Amino acid sequence: NSLPDEIISEILSPALKVPDDKFADTYEISPFTEYSESPSAYLLVCKSWLRVATPLLYNIVVLRSKAQAKALGQALSKNKDLGQFIKCFRVEGGYGAPMRTILKAAPNITDLCLSFWDIFASDNTVGLCDGLASIQPRRLILRDNPMRPLHNKMIEKLVDAVAAAIPQWQQLVRRAFTSTEIGISRLLTLLYRPFFTVPTWTTL
């Protein structure tokens, strides 16, 4: 007899879960730069593991490349149910048009982490900007480098999009920067008015 789903979930959760302090890390070197085996291997063990592991795997999504964004966008387009599982979403770049597809397919995102210091002039944030209106996060985490001023149009587009989205995010109750950035980040300056419409200030 196969194990109950509850037991399988207890077995798989430690391997598939991303600690919140790692997900919300805002320092210069991403905690996700270190290589690790893909947790998707657990989905291949058997049908029961696939059924239980899929929601766990998609619960927290971290994107670090255009290839990952493209693959995720394609997966969500093929299976509409997968996007419903995404609750925590961390984006370390712009990643182009697939971001629009991903965000529109993931209306249950509660925690959103955006990185501004990983976006270069050659990147494309248009899809990310367009997709922000499709979600209602409760927590917004922003990675910014106060030592490097905003210097390209793609970053400026994203800043404008976030500033426009914040007043529309009715569920937003927490927003965070690193404590070292407060008072000196130009990003914080640009987002000052919309950011302070949110009642809770959190430093990381």
Task: Characterise this structure.
The protein has helices spanning 5-16, 20-23, 47-59, 66-78, 80-84, 98-105, 126-131, 153-165, 186-190, 192-195; strands spanning 60-63, 88-91, 111-115, 139-143, 174-177, 200-203. The longest helix has 13 residues, at 47-59. With 204 residues, the protein is α/β, with parallel strands linked by helices. The chain has one domain: Leucine-rich repeat, LRR (right-handed beta-alpha superhelix) (Alpha-Beta Horseshoe), CATH 3.80.10. The model is unreliable at 179-184 (pLDDT under 50). It is globular, with a radius of gyration of 17 Å.
Question: Brief description of this entry?
Answer:
This protein has 204 residues and is an alpha/beta fold. It has a single domain (22-29, 60-203), classed as Leucine-rich repeat, LRR (right-handed beta-alpha superhelix), CATH 3.80.10.
Taking the alpha carbons of the first and last residues, their distance comes to: 46 Å
* Computed CA radius of gyration, to the nearest angstrom: 17 Å
| CATH hierarchy, class | Alpha Beta
- Total number of helices: 10
Which shape, going by the Cα principal axes?
A: globular
Tally of discrete structural domains? 1
Strand content: 5-15%
Counting DSSP E segments of at least 2 residues, the number of strands comes to 6
Low-confidence stretches: 179-184
CATH architecture title: Alpha-Beta Horseshoe
SS-based structural class?
alpha/beta
| Mean pLDDT across every amino acid position | 80
